[in-house]
Amino acid sequence: MEKALKYRLVIWVVVIFFIILTSVTFPLQSQIQKTCLAVGFGIDKVDGQIEISAQIIIPQAGGDYSQTQEIISNRGANIAEAVSNLELETGKNLSLDHCHVLVISKSLCEENIIEHLDYLIRSNLMNNNTVLIYTNGTSKEILLSSSQLNTSDLNNLQNITNYNNSHDSSSGISLIDFVNEYMSPTSTSLFTSIEVNSTDESSSNSNNQQNNNGATTSQPSKEATTLKNDGSGVVFLEGKKVLDIKKEEMWKLNWFDPRFKVGSIQIENISDEKLKNANMNFYIKKKDMQIKPKFVNNTPIIELNLQLLLKATNITQQDKYIVPTGTNYISDTVKQAISTKIQNEVNDAVQLCKDNSLDIIKAYNIFNTVLNKEWKQYLSSLNSPYEYLNHLVVNVNLDATFYK
Questions:
Q1: What is the SS3 string spanning the chain?
Q2: Which residues lie below 8 Å from residue 5, measured CB to CB, with a gap of 6+?
């Protein structure tokens, strides 16, 4: 009797488990059938209309989980109309909750882009932490290229932007951060710039099929293109793109970015007791920073305190390679050369801001937050409040630790 009761209990547990599993699975299947799940989104301006492109996930049947990506797009007088047209064409709702990347093209940046981005936030279509990317081409090309090599996880925009945020390559900005910076006194933002390296310029166009109302669906090309992520960027002022930033300039600006943690630095023509006219490369394993503003004789000064964990990776002297052994070649001369190198790069970054009247390093925010009263008094002493960059001084205080 007792064994029969246990057997019945086990049967009921199994039945209840399958009932619960079935009730959960059916809505999920229904959701996939009703929703286009986008992981990438792009905005272009074509023939006076707004064209949106979505990189959507297509689950594949099989024992192992797999998926493909397709690019769907449509046009309208604005984003709202383009989204509506896209949903009407596909018969599915567009979901941008899991969208990691928003690509903004050059064609759109001839005007203030805040109108389009503000709509995405206020409509709750897109996650506020979505990363913004700029391209001189079209956003559709970027998304298509990213989809082509998805099976090998190359050209993955999410991987690229995550890498850029912590390395010396470039700088990323989220959707909500851009809106907040647009509303700030400086109205200045820094974007990552990514382009397409095409092996066949016509390959992307040959795989697009467009219908009469502007909707397109793009399949991956056999001639795979690659993305060009070379560390360059662009600056936006009041919602408009105003300046291109080269990789070397981006590197120098990154000394002010707390997200930049690792990278490399090279010093040249080092001569001390062990070296003569040598070049040395160091790997930056970790960077910590503190920014402290102050005024000295009505001059705004930023003390940039850097703590670096460094390792010598390459030493060449008169075209001869020297094997770095521990910290044997780290002298006071080497330390001073590193400090001077960073100070010069920081000075170049500040000069870039002054030459273009762009507060890319957010000096205004630094002083206004920490020394609000003194900052307002300083601004009132200027002929124009926008002259504050002209008198800015940044001092680098380096604390370098070397490891084997």
A1: CHHHHHHHHHHHHHHHHHHHHHHHHHHHHHHHHHEEEEEEEEEEEECCEEEEEEEEEEEECCCCCEEEEEEEEEEECCHHHHHHHHHHHHCCEEEECCCCEEEEECCCCCCCCHHHHHHHHHCCCECCCCEEEEECCCHHHHHHHHHHCHHHCCCCHHHHHHHHHHCCCCCCEEHHHHHHHHHCCCCEEEEEECEEECCCCCHHHHCEEECCCCCEEECCCCCCCEEECCCCEEEEECCEEEEEECHHHHHHHHHHCCCCCCEEEEEEEECCCCCCCEEEEEEEEEEEEEEEEEEECCEEEEEEEEEEEEEEEEEEECCEEECCCCCCCCCHHHHHHHHHHHHHHHHHHHHHHHHHCCCCCCHHHHHHHHCHHHHHHHHHCCCCHHHHHHHCEEEEEEEEEECC
A2: none
Query: For the whole model, what pTM was predicted?
Result: 0.80
Residue in 118, 86, 91, 88 with CA at minimum distance from that of residue 102: 118
Decide if 311 contacts 283 (C-beta within 8 A).
yes
pLDDT digits (tens, 9 = 90+) for 118-146: 888 888 788 888 889 999 999 999 898 88
| Buried b or exposed e, range 164-177, using 16+ CB within 10 angstroms | bbebbbbbbbbbee
Task: Give the torsion through C-alpha atoms of 59, 64, 65, 67, to 10 deg.
Answer: -50
pLDDT in tens, 255-302: 998 888 888 899 999 999 888 999 999 999 999 999 999 999 999 999
CA–CA separation, 188 and 110 (whole Å) = 16
Specify whether the CB–CB gap between 221 and 82 falls below 8 A: no
* Nearest residue to 352 via CA among 207, 244, 229: 244
Distance, CA of 302 to CA of 246 (rounded, Å) = 24
